[in-house]
Write a structure and sequence with these properties.
Elements: H1 2-9, H2 12-47, E1 60-61, H3 67-72, H4 76-81, E2 86-87, H5 89-116, E3 123-125, E4 132-134
Antiparallel strand pairs: 1-2, 3-4
Helix pairs in contact: 2-5
Amino acid sequence: MLQEFKKFALRGNVIELAIGVIIGGAFGKIVNSLVEDIIMPPIGVLLSVSHVQNFSDWFFPLVPMTKAQREQIVSVADAKHAAIPTINYGLFINNVLTFTIVAFAIFLLVKQINRLAPPVVKTRECPECCSTISVKAKRCPNCTSEIVPLAA
């Protein structure tokens, strides 16, 4: 059983997957920091309609609050501490914006990686008649000459 586990754990795919998960976690922390610490604060200030400068502190109380409570409770944490149930729509907006920015950052990263990868060749030229044929072709459809297929 130990030999089987060793064979499984040291296979290339498992190691590559582990490396991918580790690098993905580190990249996720970088992108999350970019979103939370660099991009969201200015957006929160620009879009803020109250004294709150962060979307995560926008909430709607589900029970009536007194004037003193409204002045005292200015964040979701304050409302939770006072045991006031709330709809935290600011957290939802924050999460949607964070997801959008993270998805866009990953899109840009994948686009750049794909640009660096060599293009996949799907066609080649027939050595007899110089017409364009598939890489997998065994015979040219134009001149019917036999061709050794290339590895795809």
